[in-house]
Amino acid sequence: VIPLTSETLTSVTLYMYELSKLPAGTFSAAPALTRISIQNTKLSTIETSTFESLTSLVTLLIEDTNIPTLGDKSLAFNSTTLSEVNLSSNKIATIDPTAF
């Protein structure tokens, strides 16, 4: 788990990390995030409500990971500014009807 604890942090890029899971609350201590980029990781799980606390999120890029399923509320957002979600080059085979 990568603890993010900055109220002024606006962008996070995780590239080629040995990251396998995004637990709920991963980004809750960084409420000003507007951009998250996760690329070329071994990410296989996004837990419920991981992104819900990010009310200023504009861009979410999750590319080239091992995610097989988008489960319940895994991509639930409370951001009115969200304009881009890119899930390209993933192994997504199943999307739960309540994922978003």
Automatic annotation (TrEMBL):
The entry's keywords: Signal
One Pfam family linked to the record: LRR_8
Gene Ontology CC terms: extracellular matrix; extracellular space
Record InterPro entries: Dev_Immune_Receptor (IPR050328), Leu-rich_rpt (IPR001611), LRR_dom_sf (IPR032675)
Xref: PANTHER family: LEUCINE-RICH REPEAT-CONTAINING PROTEIN 15-LIKE, SLIT RELATED LEUCINE-RICH REPEAT NEURONAL PROTEIN
Protein name: Uncharacterized protein
Species: Cherax quadricarinatus
